[in-house]
Amino acid sequence: MAEADHAMFCDLHMHSTASDGTHAPAELARLALAAGLGAIALTDHDTTAGLPACAAACAESGVAFVPGIELSADPGAIWTDIGQAPPERLGTLHILGYFIRHDEPGLQAIHRRLLDARAQRNPRIIANLQALGVEIAYDDVLELARAEGSRVVGRPHIAQVLLKKGYVKSIQDAFARYIGEGKAAYARTDLLPPREAIEAIHGTGGLASMAHPVQLRCHDDAAMDRAVVCLRSWGLDALETRHTDHTPAQVDRYGKLAARLGLLTTGGSDFHGERKPIGLGNQRVPMEVLDRLRAAAKAGG
Ligand code: AMP
Ligand code: FE
Ligand code: FE
Ligand code: ZN
Fold it and tell me: Which of 13, 16, 20 to mutate to test the pocket of ligand 1 (most atoms within 8 A of CB)?
């Protein structure tokens, strides 16, 4: 396929070593070029630390760059607000921010809060593992994260240490046996009210999108509709319709939901490098998706 054809696609969701990916921010630009992508957004968990390096490398590679972030928010706040019992197993609520000014104090304050929350949560996971007879020290995890260049220490780093020590066969295995949601060593970190996540993103001139809606684990379609209406009342701008975890039927359903509620759409692979079997650019998100987002950011900002 000619390069011009490839550049019709973008990938608006990926992670670098600034959070829990395994590629440095600048490497992502080179990988995007090799994958023939016309544009990428870097959306590290809870940090903007990788944005300047990725932006510079993208400029060099001729790949359009969108500064982003993915904030971990509290899914429970939705069910409280709409007065509905939460699903038996509370899912994940991640809010993506696009076209953010990364040095805005409000966002950096959120970043520090989320780092604090992780500093409380991670040792609880380690203690849970130790209680299960796993010989692991939090320092092992901190050391690995630091060596990789991350200050946002998360479960993938813990999984990597478990793998290195031979307790699990793979990263997936670590989540399935120990640290996945609902498993024996799991502990939550997501205490940020979603409204505050959205407001912090707006405060930087950015747009907020609900990441991978399927991960909220709603009981049914009606509950998902109510959850998204609730997030929209808090200022949500967009829904991530295309994502590696979504079936084609879900992409279609979330697209229709976004259209019905007057929300924009976003999409991306959620590429993490070597720790997850996901190909950069795998969602083939049309550039028009980014064009619409850019126009809305300009109009609002
Ligand atoms: P944390 O923010 O520390 O709770 O870690 C969340 C991250 O763990 C997600 O963004 C994924 O990168 C990763 N993750 C969650 N569940 C799994 C899983 N089942 N297998 C592999 N990685 C996972
Ligand atoms: Fe991650
Ligand atoms: Fe996520
Ligand atoms: Zn992500």
Answer: 20
